[in-house]
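User: Sequence in, structure out. Go.
Assistant: Echoing your sequence, followed by the structure tokens.
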Amino acid sequence: MQLVLFWIFSLLMLLSAMGVVFFRNPVSSAMSLVLSFIALAAVFVTLDAFFIAVVQVLVYAGAVMVLFLFIIMLLDLREEKRRRVRLSAWLGGGLVVGGFISALLKVVLSLPALFVEKPALSHPLANDIEQVGYNLFRNFNLPFQVIGVLLLVATVGVVLLSKKELK
């Protein structure tokens, strides 16, 4: 049953990700991205990665998407007009998709077995949350701080863009 749910949520995630690209309304695209994030969290649950699933829902589907929706609402984005797609764009996109599929097939065909039993934890009393916190603040402290500054700059930029000009 776990494998069936994995494939159902994976398909839902991919379909909603396609909705992000193909919807013309920015709010519909953002809501489709929320659905994709939630389906990804469900995929993590089927893989027994409960902490990552909770973080996915709280951080991405919660905080980041609220920020995206505020940006969309503040900038008052309208529905995008349809435009003609050139042959070179189709050709370039086809090459990227073909390269991705060939790389994916190479990886899948090189696997010795698709359904391998899960490896045992290195230590049965290992605390996942403690390990994530330790790695985040010990080994990845600089990228963590850079992302915080980047989010602050993006927030200040949204506030400045949303201000009305005084005439």
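User: And one key feature?
Assistant: The mean pLDDT is 79.
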